[in-house]
Amino acid sequence: MPDAPYRLVFLALLTAACAPALADEPFDEPAAYRARVERLNAPTTTSNEVIYDVLEPVPGAPEWSPWPIREGADRTIDSRALDAARDYAAKMNSNALLIWRDGALELEAYFGGHTRESNTVSRSLAKPMTTIAVGRAIALGKIRSLDQPLVDFFPEWQGTDKAKMRVRHLLDMRSGLLAQGPVSDPASIWTRSYMGTRHDEVILREYPLTDTPGARYNYSNATSDLVAPLIERATGRRYAEFLSQEVLQPLGAPGGQVWVNRPGGMAHSGCCLLIPADAWLRLAVLMLDDGVWGRRRLLPEGYVADVTSPTPQYPWAAAGVYVAGRYIERRGAAHPDVPAPKTLHSEPYLAGDLYLFDGNANQVVYIVPSLRMIILRTGSNPPRGSEWDNAFLPNTLIRGARLRPGERAPEPQPR
């Protein structure tokens, strides 16, 4: 599933090394915005080496240790399935493939010069992070629950229909805000709410409500980008600091960077988090273990079950993640009545309890609770003439999984 039904090209003016200097130099916001839009509309080549302006550090754990790797007879997945998964990832322009099962990696592969330390240009893999960040804020008592009114944090919505919006609506795309549209015209609300140097203010003050909150699923980056100001207002901490200290460091995960709209400005939470593949894997393990890491509970009990339950308005999406649901050959991130690309699923998933993180360019993290299996693939779009099959990796590896004593094969996705 693509993370947006339209072309969202991430281009930038400055390297990360330039970012510190910006604090000492005037930042011409109108000029910066014009330059961003010009770069957005310029002819480009597809690349996963994207540089954003401006980047803010998101420190990870001071001491990061990679996962153990099973070899030979210790593996719990047949070597032929692992080889097939690696070959598929390689030919589909991947930069990382991690296959994890119950505490260890069965396979760790990198392509095109990428390594364990390379940051992943997350695109909408950042959206599951928003779900985890909100859960952590709830666990800390900074947000009461997923059903707390957002107007408690966004008082500028008092007396408007937006006051009906709940915290969960930012995660499950039922905010009622305008659906995602093309980002190119500098005057459009879509471009200003994404490329703007004060994109958060545009969303809070100007982004239109088109439906009653909770009544309709509408994919929108603007909806997810409201999580960063929510976290900042709820906790009094910068979004990058909160992710670092409350999520990545407790998980022992490597850190990275996040795009902020201007020096000292607001982070983009709906996209644009740059962290290594291992960090995304650890987020998935946290979800698999009901929000517990080691002996420490980071997310409220039952939170994972709540956020992985689909909504009636879109049965293949939950809060920041997608679920198996009933089999359909093609489905996408947008509402079915919105004309937008849809991703191929050549056959039903062999595990009906599967759910996944999913971002643009077919960046996926499949979580299979029944087998305690996680499959991560990051990278670029497949080569021209190839089509990504969202069922290939999980089904190949589920077929190759060796069942241990007392373990049963998962129930397949229903038709």
Question: Brief overview, please?
Answer:
With 415 residues, the protein is of the alpha+beta class. 27% of the residues lie in helices and 14% in strands. It has 13 helices and 14 strands.
Distance between the termini: 19 Å
Q: Count the helices. How many?
A: 13
Which regions are unreliable across 5 or more consecutive residues at pLDDT < 50? Answer: 1-23, 45-50
Structural class category:
alpha+beta
Helix content: 25-40%
For the sheet with most strands, the description reads: 6 strands, antiparallel
Question: What quaternary form is this?
Answer: single chain
Please write the string of helix (H) and strand (E) elements.
HHEHEEEHHHHHHHEEHEEHEEEEEEH
Strand order of the largest sheet: 3-2-14-13-12-9
Secondary structure: number of strands: 14
Just give the CATH class. Answer: Alpha Beta
Strand content: 5-15%
Any idea what the CATH architecture is? 3-Layer(aba) Sandwich
| The CATH homologous superfamily | DD-peptidase/beta-lactamase superfamily
CATH topology: Beta-lactamase
Mean pLDDT: 91
User: What is the overall silhouette?
Assistant: globular
Based on CA atoms alone, the radius of gyration comes out at: 20 Å
Task: Give the number of domains.
Answer: 1
